[in-house]
Batch of 2 targets.
Target 1
Amino acid sequence: MTAPFDQRYRRSDGRLIWTIAKLAVARDAAGRPKHLIAVIEDISERKAMEQSLRESERFVKSTIDALSEHICVVDEKGCILTVNKAWREYSHNVGVHITQDWIGVNYLDICDKATATGPRDAAAFAEGMRDVLFDRREDFTLEYSCSTEAAERWYLAKVTRFQLDGPVRVVISHENVTQAKLAQQHLTFLAHYDSLTGLPNRVLFYDRLKHTLLQAERSDWTVAVMFIDLDNFKMVNDTMGHAAGDALLKQASARIVAGLRANDTVGRLGDDEFGVFLPDLLSANDAGLVAQKIMDAMACSFMIDNKEHFVTCSIGITVYPHDARDPDSLVSNADTAMYRAKQIGRNNHQYFTAHMNTRMLEHARLENGLRMALERQELFLEYQPQVDMQSGRIVGVEALMRWHHPELGLVAPTTFIPIAEETGLIVAIGEWALGVACAQNVAWQKRSLAPLVMAVNLSARQFKQKDMSDTVRQVLHETGLNGNWLELELTEGIVMENAEALIATMNRLKTYGVRLSLDDFGTGYSNLGYLKRFPLDAIKIDRSFISGIGADFGADESMIASTVITLGHSLRLAVVAEGVETSEQLRTLKALKCDIMQGFLFSTPLSAPAMTHLLEQHAPQ
Ligand code: C2E
Ligand code: MG
Ligand code: MG
């Protein structure tokens, strides 16, 4: 018998016919060839089936090759039957190099090798793979990461076992989900971190604090929570723009972080507010040391736009479990203590005390009351005379604001003016005071009393209003007061902030004839350079320098008063002494050639009718 051979020919109707021919020689009894037998079998159908199977295999192969997922099909023992193009490339990229073709390699061997050498989740994958192969589960998915030199990539692996009519097959696919993972990580970052400083945001800060407090309870820890607020940050933001403000916040946050231990947490809680907690402290006092370290770190200048800036911070500290046990109360306590640090002059740190809460409540009560004070007509002015030292004549009065609270009675301006400044209410009530004072001066002038200069206090916040000079002009116009009879008292705080804008406003006010004086001179940053550049008419020596004159310890105060008077005169400024209470002070000031005095010695601040009465008594005959 010969080996069978194929034959292929096309019939006249175009159909392709496959035959297989086998030839055999028939022999007689003696073994001699007798005749040739040819067996021809039509195998067209089988050939067509084989052809279509090959085509469908090619189709399946090119289809899976076209997929971006890495696909590998294994048999029930784990031997690889096929892999796609993406698979080969991926394996190459992640450093799995198989020298022979993949086909026939046992996938479990690859898994075991990977478990020994990385990637991180290979062991979990190998276990899942065995479960599917050994029919313990149908399928599984696993997200895992692979780090190469270039980057970290994330994959989603799916392993599915199936069996149709034939043997068991297991399809393993790995999809690159790096982009989706990065997008998800970015979203998580945005939801939990502050994008400017990279610090945990309020949400994450509270969450971490909550967990730390649970641990603290189990382990008996002392935890300190700090609230840090940058001083004068708003000024940098307002005068230099938000980009400069952002640069400052970044630098400041880096300095805070640098001052802490690795297991301390810092978060950005608001614009220029940072929260810190220090777990497992040996003693609550340690928090004060850390706060001081942060303040020291802030003390060096910040370089912004190639210019040096100085920013300090105020810090409030509260301690778990002594002051409170939950995150909200602790952060609120630290905030209260920070507020206290601000109140007593900034650039310091304060521990929370229960007493502070009472103060905060009181503060809130006053703030709410003040919002309605103007409308309810609870505010009024008193007037304190200013007397010419040489002639003894009343040449002016200072208008001083008073608030009659319906329950608390008379509230001191030193209490409510700072609240009005903080809340911005000062703009409205300051304008009201200016109007009432100017109208009162006109009323006195109409009574033909000797004309007086009406001095009105202006706070820094009012002066920063863009239309400040327009407001003054408007008030002068409405009340009919000549600008020469109005004096505006500025404080040194105003003077420091934005000199150029301030000078422009001052010059505009001067064109209306308004006088300008510098109040509480000597208590602020007293920069003599400013005194020369500002169009001032007078300086008022602060009461604290006058009160020592004549007392045993008053030598320094007399010296200061004398220096200020000489200085004022050399700059052609009138000098007003505030708070003159004794005749000895008066004598000394007279000898020092002080121009004007104001104080209880002559008169306390008076109501409008009482002041009218006094003026009538002092009217020139
Ligand atoms: P100031 O402008 O320095 O006002 C002088 C303060 O010294 C007044 O306190 C006055 O009553 C007090 N005083 C005057 N003579 C004597 C004295 O001989 N002895 C003592 N011990 N005190 C004397 P007052 O009225 O309590 O006002 C305190 C501060 O509140 C003022 O200080 C001023 O800074 C602010 N203020 C008052 N009214 C207004 C206002 O209408 N607007 C603004 N922005 N601030 C105001
Ligand atoms: Mg004043
Ligand atoms: Mg004063």
Note: The chain has a mean pLDDT of 89.
Target 2
Amino acid sequence: MTSPHPSSAASRYRALLSPLDLGRLTLKNRLVMGSMHVGLEDHPGDLARLSAFLGERARGGVGLIVTGGHSPNRSGRLTAGGAQADERTMTRHQVITREVHDADGRIILQLLHAGRYAAQPLAASPSGGRSPLSPFRSRRLTRRGTRRTVEQFALAARRAVDAGYDGVELMGSEGYLLNQFLAPTTNRRRDRFGRGAEGRRALPLAIAAAVRDAIGEDALLSYRISLLDLVPGGQTWDETVVLAKGLAERGVDVLSTGIGWHEARVPTIVTSVPRGAFVPLTAQLRSEVDVPVIASNRLHDPDLAEQVLARGEADLVSMARQLLADPHLPRKLAEGRSGQVVACISCNQACLDKVFVGKRASCLVNPRAAHETELVLTPVAPRRVRKVAVVGGGPAGLEAALAAAERGHVVTLFEATEELGGQLRLAARIPGKEDYALALRSWRMRLAAAGVGIRLGMRPTPADLAGFHDVIVATGVAPRPVDLPGFAPSAEPPAAGPQVVTYQDLLEERAVAGERVAIIGAGGIGVDVAEYLTSPIPSPTLDARAWREHWGVTDPSAVRGGVTAAPQRTEANDGRRAREVHLLQRKETKIGAGLGRTTGWVHRAELRRAGVIQHRGVTYERIDEQGLHLVEDGEARVLEVDTVVLCAGQVSVADLAAELGAGASRTSPRVHVVGGADLAAELDAERAIRQAVEVASAL
Ligand code: NAP
Ligand code: SF4
């Protein structure tokens, strides 16, 4: 579908969609796909998949693509088999550059030397030693080693350009090798590549100059510069500005801004980080240097990206995960379909969390991401169009209905409540997960555009579904009850003792928690509920200044690295509700151990800071007028609480599937069960959505 008013659409995103000359390259718009490792870069066997992934983004209309990081040499590889810009690999990459150029796209290769972050035994860094994230101790680069590193960067850059790349980006942020040279905490050298700020800058500047020399004037040279290291002993603002000017003098065409080292204890991209939280620093850099700058981090909202450009805070905007979620975002903006952009919710669940354990990335809201050649939604031939009923409007049902309708089937979606969203709608009520509502809005708009009929407030019976060819049952889950004397969830507080409520009732505000609360179950939802009950009001995610204070982010002109110890909880300084919250589980393992690899630590830090009292290895005994009785460390005790919140996992709601199965005949609709209705154990939206798309792709 194209916009009836393309000119008004174009004007809404006038700055974002306007062309830009960058170096000697002309970009068709100011949207950059920032570098992402998607797990397809390391194996030659994945080249066709990688090419399809990048080609899809080029066809979607992004102005410039930056590839995942490739090391200039063996010691800089992220892992032992990690991507390297060697001769053979770069020759093979001609497939990629051709595919992107055929789609009228522009692409540059990122050169990344991992330094002490390399998870392999050849790791080398300015002063040796091991990072808090690495299994290996890095060796100190010798003087000869530094000279070789400069040459290897130049050689790798030349190979990239020979393979058809439009240029290269030097990864100088996130705590990788070049960033390690710049920070006194990791560079304690006494030679010309250390000893004061000028010495620490020498290697990155030498590499920039050598690379410019190697790739010539026509190719684009980008440098990813760390604006805020967020580690003690990181750079000062003055040092960053002097570096930026030095890079420009050595022929860098554009500075792509990066925030925070991987080992920083401040979140920088998860969903609880306020949108555009770091743009003010990009704007400050832009005012101090004479080279275009790219803003990044939590800038997935096109309206915000437009404002950043229109206000002159940056020259370009980088989105990375957002283009996993929707490769066609630029095209949709140009066609006046911004409401149909698939919104990234910054959950990291299917992308970064996968890549960090060596798996291929995908996207929770777009399972086709990085699987373009395998999960294909082909339009259905007119004579094969089927009448499809989808029952249940949670993530699995929404995506099943959408995918089936986009293929050309006639789809009706039934939802028992008056609102779509299921468990995702509840998640959007957690402070720090406000963006989840964006995904729901996007689904609603796309369902409407795809012509899905929506019937809210209706629980169809098998008789209601008789006229459909296919029924996709996505009836989801219900909270798992626990077998405990006195356990009786109720909407009203009892005359004596604690009120027992489900997490659903609490989050939907059908029940109100008291001042002393026990949460039974410390999985993802128990942790979320603990944050819901203790989070400052309003949520710091909605106020960048409050969020910076909450995490101890400060001015890098005043404090090296721009971080102090985060302030501890006090009633006076953060306005938290004064609640005593107990979070309980029967297992002995660390609370929150099963949370996402890149997000779990943020939640655990929030729990600690909010003073949530954690209990592991407990046995629940009963609930009575005194409170919740349990055994902990071999001793019986009672938690005298006003409210007990049930977060003990879920059970499938699959009655409809059973009824349809029981009454099935030759003429009955085909029944497909997806999401939590199929399997409630370790329910997760990523699996539910992927399963929904797989079912819809086979209809
Ligand atoms: P969950 O992760 O399976 O946790 C359920 C909790 O209930 C566990 O602490 C479990 O621990 C306890 N439990 C299970 N059966 C029980 C029983 N009969 N009596 C008492 N306690 C019992 O489930 P969830 O918290 O409902 O989350 C569902 C899914 O949503 C998760 O798998 C996760 O993927 C996703 N999610 C993730 C996040 C996040 O990453 N931040 C947030 C929300 C949801 P014990 O058996 O040790 O007591
Ligand atoms: Fe965004 Fe989550 Fe998809 Fe990653 S998995 S791209 S964070 S929505």
Note: The mean pLDDT is 93.
